Amino acid sequence: MQILVNLGWAAVFIIVAAVVGIALILASTWIVPRLIERFTPNIDEDKEIALGNRAVAEYFGRIVAATIIGISLVIAAGIIGGIAFALF
């Protein structure tokens, strides 16, 4: 019976980690571009990207991608924590 309870709690932890992770990724894809625009007030990133400025596009893409990867690592840690809780 205890195994089923542990598996239930593991499922709860995994689902909560996934929901929080999705919310964090959505929030970061909304917040990070606005932060970059605030840090570089003299550069209109959208305009530069539309004009074909590859340097701005690559920098912008790398910053957003790094943020998403970092948050994904946090999500993975939460999910692995739920799995570890179920095993012990």
Describe this structure in words.
The protein has one domain (2-87). The longest helix has 38 residues, at 2-39. It contains 3 helices and no strands. The protein is rod-shaped. 3% of the residues are buried. With 88 residues, the chain is mainly alpha-helical. It is 89% helix and 0% strand.
Structural class: mainly alpha
Number of helices: 3
Order of helices and strands: HHH
Helical residues, percent:
over 70%
Oligomer description: single chain
Low-confidence stretches: none
| Euclidean distance between termini CA atoms | 14 Å
Q: Output mean pLDDT.
A: 83
Number of domains: 1
Percent of residues in β-strands: under 5%
Keywords:
0% strand; mainly alpha; 3 helices; 88 residues
What's the SSE blueprint?
Blueprint: H1 2-39, H2 45-50, H3 54-87
Helix pairs in contact: 1-3
Provide a concise account of the structure shown.
By secondary structure, the protein is mainly α. The protein has helices spanning 2-39, 45-50, 54-87. It has one domain (2-87).
